[in-house]
TrEMBL record:
Alphabetized PANTHER family for the sequence: AMINO ACID PERMEASE_ SLC12A DOMAIN-CONTAINING PROTEIN (PTHR38695)
Location of the region described as Disordered in the Swiss-Prot/TrEMBL record: 89-124
The name this protein goes by in its record: Luciferase domain-containing protein
Lineage of the organism: Eukaryota, Fungi, Dikarya, Ascomycota, Pezizomycotina
Domain Luciferase residue range list: 181-247
Amino acid sequence: MTSLLHRPGLQSLYRVSIPQDLQRNLWPLIAGSLTLGILSWAIYDYRDWVGFGTGGIPPTIRGWFKANRLRIVRAFNYLCGDDLQGPSGLPQTEPRYLPPTLPQRAKGPPSLKPRTLPQRQCPEPIEPQARDTLFNLMNDLHSQYPHLLHLGLSKTEGGTVDAIYARSELPTCNPEAAAVGYEIAHAHPADNSLHALLSPVDACTVIEAAWGRRFAVPSMVPPGWIMVYAPRNSEEVEVISQIVRAAIQWTTGTKLD
């Protein structure tokens, strides 16, 4: 019995005839499509990178390439088991300015943006009053402690956001803070997250409560310089205030009232 596939009428159904002109142009078409896709992604990624702040890297094409090189290094470290989400690797250096435990962040850590710098989370809804309080926090703390703090643009963020600094002339100032220009904390308008310099043991407390994670490039900063996740309501802003006050005490070496 003749196989169905060998019947003349059916064999023609399995023959695919590609016109000669198309055969000659197939690979250029594929290459062009891939190039267009990569270019579209690069434009989107560059705009998104600039829109969320560049993490202190100049907002240029060269800066974008540098940020993506760091992304590749970070991806390699992640594959090696270091996701920055746990406190492993942080020394338990005291003193402690936070209580041993903080209220756990509801629903845990947020999703993060995919790049290393700037280190940002995906934005979450926040109550308008809570956001106002958050972005007045640095000014309010400076007003309370002008003998300890001064305000300025964040050097670690390339001068794109406001920050509080320890007065470097203080005899009690923590020498570790010199690595970040005596910067204590700043908040990011694009996603409402923060960076802050805490004692390592306080940084562990924040991370264990799902309120923060280690910095994306640990070799660039002191161990206690961490990302603090965004608050979403007034109660959570109180937790952030507690964290920033602890950062002030660690950096200035002075107990607050």
